[in-house]
Amino acid sequence: xxxxxxxxxVAEIAPTLDFLEQQLLxxxxxxxxxxxxxxVTPLVTGVGMVATTWALAHFFAAHRSxxxxxxxxxxxxxxxxxxxxDVVHVIAEQFxxxxxxxxxxxxxxxxxxxxxxxxxxxxxxxxxxxISAEQTSFLPAVRGITVNRVHGNTHSIERLRTKYPMAQIxxxxxxxxxxxxxxxxxxxxxxxxxxxxxxxxxRETWEINLAxxxxxxxxxxxxxIFGG
Length: 228
Fold this sequence. Notes:
Blueprint lengths: L1 E6 L2 H14 L1 E3 L4 E4 L2 E7 L4 H14 L5 E10 L9 E9 L3 E3 L5 E3 H4 L14 E2 L11 E6 L7 H10 L5 E3 L2 H11 L3 E10 L10 H19 L2
Parallel strand pairs: 1-4, 1-5, 5-12, 6-10, 10-11
Antiparallel strand pairs: 2-3, 3-4, 5-11, 6-9, 6-12, 7-8
């Protein structure tokens, strides 16, 4: 099995990269790690939707042998039922700031504007859905939104919750990952670890190290399973 491990930054998957260096053989040409039938290729895209889309499009154009793409990173939680450090499985995503701001401050997305069909590929009712998500149940399933600007102001957060009441986590890349994999017909999974709540911005309350450690503990166990 050839797994593409996708992350916005090296820091978010650093413990897993260390594990791969220690446990698998490294091909410096392909930058992949392999052992027996397992091959893991890390792809660090850079932060944000544009960087993620470009990196995936470039990779998929050159490599059609990917069996499974796995996106991993940290995120903010809109749903406070999840604790900081919880690792979740993102089953659906939305672009949450792609549209226009109205004169009264309301946000109108591309579907409401009639510029994009909410059921035109790869969308389903305006969402990007992982149709194989039901096959995986070892992590809590959540719905995510992806933004260019992470929310940290009370009023904008309230508007966000009103606009996307089903959203449970917020990131800056996942929807781009879903979009590329769905159009590229690449089986995929996205997991995120909660580093903070989406609330008035206060970095002192974030638990980034906890989130990264828990995220990578899950990633390493997944790789061990696939590696036999």
